[in-house]
Amino acid sequence: MHFGADKLPFLGCEVSKDGISPSKEKVEALVNYPQPQDVSALRRFLAMLNFYRRFIPNAAEMQRILYGLVKGKKKRYKTTTDWGEAAVQAFQTCKNSIAQAALLAHLNSDAKLSLVVDASNTGIAGTLQQTYLKNT
Known about the structure:
The chain is an alpha+beta fold. It has 4 helices and 6 strands. A hairpin with a 4-residue loop joins strand 5 and strand 6. It comes from Araneus ventricosus (Orbweaver spider).
């Protein structure tokens, strides 16, 4: 039990009065994750990162190149992954993005809400946004 705590750990996240964010320990594990040498390790990294995708703007686009490296390969595939310059850059971008993950605010029933959707040839997305006024 955590009585009087400012933050509570919950399912790999920290919940506070301001909102929810990835836990510092999980972010640190992803930021320090070594460049995967095989398909299995890359899938493991992508799975851990995907758990926090709601905190990362444009997550699918950042991960697109990395998913190309595992596409069509079996889950337990242990052969080495061919890391081109673009893949190395995408891997670092993903690690940087989780380090700067957004705080998702709790819903304010008095706030104005808007639904934003988008689609392209490579993906679809949608967010429910609320107008945030600092002094309300």
